[in-house]
């Protein structure tokens, strides 16, 4: 029986899996179980009524073997993906690493918008400090008198204000449907969207950066890999989350941030 394979694995068994997937999806045979292979596996699983977990276990191996053969497919396993956007982890933030998914997600989108890294600290730490400045506190008190028990960085409107301070076009909706969110994200070749959800007990914020061929969202998750249980050492770069499971914890909170024209 072939070994169970998952994201991050590499070698001959991955090569075999990629070969079996090639009649179904356009894949490079690089022997690495990266985001393209993970998207192909999840899409294959959904289309063959298997648990869409991105893990090649006994039943997925059996289905791949039973459906092998034919010329390589030209169908991409990913419908759109922003490949040039670096993942940022909140775990290495200087300030409040356990509670700064917000400014980390914002820094990720600001990278895409072309905002340069400060010379003396990483961008997410600079954003954290910017929200402590007197004009930020004054704006927070004036605009959100009913939310004075909150930290400004945990108020979504303050992230919009902060992006605008850097000259960006920024808007926030607390009533954004998933269809509205992905419609915006898919346009113009792909645009990142900051999305909120109950992925942790206190809530979490991450960045939508793509979708698989069957509509599963792809995120840069600043805390790590939600589907593998959050923990140190788990990369949050290009994480694919099964759509149905994600929609079960999604909040209708979304930020749209664009460079200034």
How does this structure look, described?
By secondary structure, the protein is of the alpha+beta class. The chain folds into two domains: 12-76, Muramoyl-pentapeptide Carboxypeptidase, domain 1 (Orthogonal Bundle); 90-258, Cathepsin B, Chain A. Helices cover 33% and strands 15% of the residues. It is built from nine helices and seven strands, in the order H-H-H-E-H-H-H-H-E-H-E-E-E-E-H-E. It has helices at residues 12-21, 35-47, 58-66, 101-113, 123-130, 134-143, 156-165, 178-186, 243-247; strands spanning 78-81, 169-173, 193-197, 204-212, 217-220, 239-240, 250-258. Strands 1, 2, 3, 4, 5, 6 and 7 form a seven-stranded antiparallel β-sheet that branches. The model has no long low-confidence stretch (mean pLDDT 94).
Task: Please summarize what this structure is.
With about 260 residues, the protein is of the alpha+beta class. It is built from nine helices and seven strands. The chain folds into two domains: about 10-75, Muramoyl-pentapeptide Carboxypeptidase, domain 1 (Orthogonal Bundle), CATH 1.10.101; about 90-260, Cathepsin B, Chain A, CATH 3.90.70.
